TrEMBL record:
PANTHER family: AMINOTRANSFERASE CLASS III (PTHR11986), LEUCINE_METHIONINE RACEMASE (PTHR11986:SF58)
A molecular function (GO) term: pyridoxal phosphate binding
Family membership noted in the UniProt record: Belongs to the class-III pyridoxal-phosphate-dependent aminotransferase family.
CDD domains named among the record's database cross-references: OAT_like (cd00610)
Keyword Transferase carried by entry: yes
Entry protein name: 4-aminobutyrate aminotransferase
Pfam families reported for this sequence: Aminotran_3
UniProt-listed PROSITE patterns: AA_TRANSFER_CLASS_3
Keywords of the record: Aminotransferase, Pyridoxal phosphate, Transferase
Cofactors: pyridoxal 5'-phosphate
Superkingdom of source: Bacteria
Length: 460
């Protein structure tokens, strides 16, 4: 039994000399498009702790953007990868079937296939890629191919990736699009029903219906519904600010899609794979899509993504779509190990029956503690989420999003050893590895409280 850190351990000023050297070389040689929210240079990790190039150990509250489900260097994941990598590292799934990817598909599908009236299970199929964007591209292609229609409807504030199809669908921040056009034709964006900032003059209670009405009004006056191949939506919006829609939104969207023969695609890249306390975030609502995109959390950090689609929908012809690296066996091994932990086949000490249980349990605790802090710090405008998918929105005295204050909070937390990541206009996401214990959560929450106390003293 190794002794785990209980508190961040800061040995140098930040950044320390080794980190500073790497930062300087990074600035010189790597893409000018990379963001660097604060001077952190990871060197190695264990569990929910990351140590930088100078030996400073910090608590990880963002998990490589909701990716490292089992934390860093989890022994069960490491063993699975080591075992697989000695067999072969690549053959090409597009051409040849392999046990490890076949059984991975079967395991993923077991979480979506539901019994139909009459007793048979509804069949689904899997296409494997490498990244979220690649899964989204596959979804666009499949929706068009299957329906023979071209138009795709997406939501404002959404994020779907940075390849051409995916950035076209992305509905947040013009920086993703400026100077890159022309983008994909035949894409429209509709508001997302954010209960904290209800769109279209609606209220938190009516915002879902308002968005549905808005789409229907497009069908009447602007966009023929029978030209719409798909509506793509994040069942809980990630990059846009960790937003949970009202319970009636997705069922109403399902109804609308059924009425018009439109494919409903749920982008579960960020909220899926147990993060919200259920395998997929849409499972918090009584609804079933036609396609699901997955990536990030599947393999605790090894690159793999998936498009899941109903068998009746995945009808594209042999050879029409593929990927050289997609479904890589080493990534698939890490995905199996991650599923073992998520499903509770392998237990992680201190995390209850499964990592999904733990996400619910510890996430619920963080959510309620942050809500208590709202009473003391009026700039914490909204605290929302499910499981370990939690958004904390900073607001100014007028209630408007306060991105500057959020940035100050983010930097101050880093300086105290709490790694965090922004999203939306003024949100900090809490998306730690799903192995976070309650004790570790308390450590992070204490740093947050200390930060907010300092910020409120500064505000005078
Ligand atoms: N969809 C969603 C919901 C995402 O959050 C992201 C990444 N933030 C993507 C797609 C794109 O994934 P990737 O960066 O792996 O291409």
């Amino acid at each position: 039994t190794q002794s785990k850190p209980r508190q961040p351990l800061l040995k140098t000023a930040l950044p320390g000399p080794k980190s500073a050297d790497i930062i300087a070389r990074d600035k010189q040689h790597l893409s000018t498009s990379y963001m660097r929210p604060y001077p952190f240079v990871p060197d190695h990790g264990e569990g929910v702790w990351l140590t930088d190039a100078d030996g400073n150990t910090m608590l990880d509250f963002f998990a490589g953007i909701a990716v490292t489900t089992a934390g860093h260097a989890h022994p069960h994941v490491v063993r699975a990868v080591q075992e697989e990598v000695t067999k072969f590292t690549h053959v090409c799934l597009t051409d040849y079937p392999q046990e490890i990817t076949t059984s991975l598909a079967e395991r993923l599908l077991a979480h979506v296939e539901r019994p139909l009236p009459g007793g048979n299970a509804e069949k689904w199929r899997v296409f494997f890629g490498n990244s979220g964007a690649e899964a989204v591209e596959a979804a666009i292609k499949l929706a068009r191919n299957h329906t023979g229609r071209t138009h795709i409807i997406s939501t404002m504030g959404s994020f779907h990736g940075r390849t051409y199809g995916a950035i076209t669908l992305t509905g947040s921040k013009t920086k993703y699009k400026r100077g890159f056009g022309p983008l994909l034709p035949a894409v429209s964006h509709v508001p997302y029903p954010n209960p904290f900032r209800p769109p279209l003059g609606s209220t938190p209670e009516t915002c879902a219906q308002a968005v549905i009405d808005h789409i229907e009004s497009l069908f009447v006056g602007i966009l023929p519904a029978d030209e719409v191949a798909a509506i793509i939506v994040e069942p809980m919006q990630g990059e846009g600010g960790y937003i949970v829609p009202p319970a009636d939104f997705l069922p109403k969207l399902r109804q609308l899609c059924d009425q018009h023969g439109i494919m409903l695609i749920f982008d579960e890249v960020q909220a899926g794979m147990g993060r919200t306390g259920k395998m997929f975030s849409f499972q918090h609502f009584d609804v079933q899509p036609d396609m699901i995109t997955l990536a990030k959390g599947i393999a605790s950090g090894l690159p793999i993504s998936a498009l899941l689609a109903k068998e009746s929908v995945m009808t594209w012809p042999v050879g029409s779509h593929g990927s050289t690296f997609g479904g890589n066996p080493v990534s698939a091994a890490a995905a199996h190990a991650t599923l073992d932990l998520l499903e509770g086949k392998v237990k992680h000490p201190g995390c209850g029956e499964s990592l999904m249980d733990n996400a619910r349990e510890v996430g619920g605790f963080i959510l309620s503690e942050l809500r208590k802090m709202q009473a003391d710090f009026p700039f914490l405008g909204d605290v929302r989420g499910e499981g370990l998918f939690i958004g904390l929105e900073f607001v100014g005295p007028d209630g408007a999003p306060d991105g500057k204050l959020r940035d100050r909070a983010s930097m101050a937390m880093f300086e105290k050893g709490l790694l965090n990541l922004d999203c939306g206009e003024a949100v900090i996401r809490v998306s730690p590895p799903l192995i976070l214990t309650r004790e570790e959560a308390e450590t992070g929450l204490a740093i947050m409280r200390e930060t907010f106390t300092e910020l409120s003293a500064d505000q005078g």
